[in-house]
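User: I'm putting together notes for a lab meeting next week and I want to include a structural view of one of the chains we've been expressing. I don't have a solved structure, so I'd like a prediction I can at least talk through. The sequence is below, exactly as it appears in our construct file.
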Amino acid sequence: MKDKLTHEVEILGRSVSVLLITGLLLTAGASAALLSSFGTVTGDANVDQSITVNSEDANEESFEQDWSFSGVVAGESVTDVNTIQNNLGTEQEVYFDGQVSNTPGDSDDEYVDSGDAYMAEHLLIENGVTFAEAPGEGIAEVEYALHDDQPAVRAYAEEQGEDGEISAGVWFDVDGTLEEGETEVTVKGKEGNKHSQTNPDWVYLVIEVTEEDSELDEGHYMLIDATVSEDTVTWEGQKFEGNDAALLKITNYDSAKQKEDYEFAREDDEDGNAERYEYDSDDVEGAKIYHAGTATGTENDGDDQVFEVFYTDFKLDGESLMTPVNFAEDEEVTVPSGDSEFGTVIDFKLAAYPGDYGFDLGVHPKE
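Assistant: Thanks for the context. Below is the predicted structure for the 367-residue chain, given as structure tokens.
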């Protein structure tokens, strides 16, 4: 047998061992018997857009929001309000950029320097909205404005002899804990033309009481200081420092918390006023803080009054929730998870050249 395997045959003019040919055939046969794959896992992913502007649809194709104004007299201001939605569970870095084009006289379209004809700023309200509430004959307005070259929220309230709560301000969704002697709310304001006050009339915190040893029923409450006289309001002992601090019960929090203003469903007393609860520091210390807000206005006075405050900043425990953003520069901004309102104000100079001005605002992912 060995002699047969060592016998040589002639292939293409060369002598080749029969043993070599047999080995090649065996190797080929063994290779053909091996698996080519242990298996395949297949799948697909439908990816939504992470940051959207003015849309509930997370499948927008563009990050840009375009708008324009016309018919504005030089020396006037125009404002615009938008919402930026961060659909991720964590804060993200984005950047804004803004451009303006105009057609002065009969010249061609051209981009002009922001300092030539106008001043423009954004103001980002982190996880927050502006609100105005005026029942009866009252007047309440809230808008974005430039005040002393600073972007601000203008809160205006006017009571015309009617009872009721008339107010305007800013409301935030927050994540905090009420701690005695540590929780601070700081509101920076500037006086208006019709009201010399620079501080808010009210500061609000919406809390949840869950401690079993509390004398209060478990649930949500509004902690309010209605006589704010300083920029900073500190939680001390049984109440805020103001003389008219109060704790109000919220009776329908699950539905009311979705509203864009401060009018939560509050429990009323026999006279139709908000029910005020007696409490001490142990009852509410450590409570979860869900919302914070500030407002200017009047409550149940029945007298003709006018209030106007320009809010420039709001801080909870030192963290600012109102971020100014320059319009003309590519500026990176941290956007928290959820929805945040941001306003734009363009203040045209008196000597602005007449013509049509168009504005493009871009919101882009961080490069």
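A couple of points you could mention at the meeting. Confidence is low (pLDDT under 50) at residues 258-262. The CA atoms of residues 268 and 274 lie 4 Å apart.

User: Perfect, that's what I needed.
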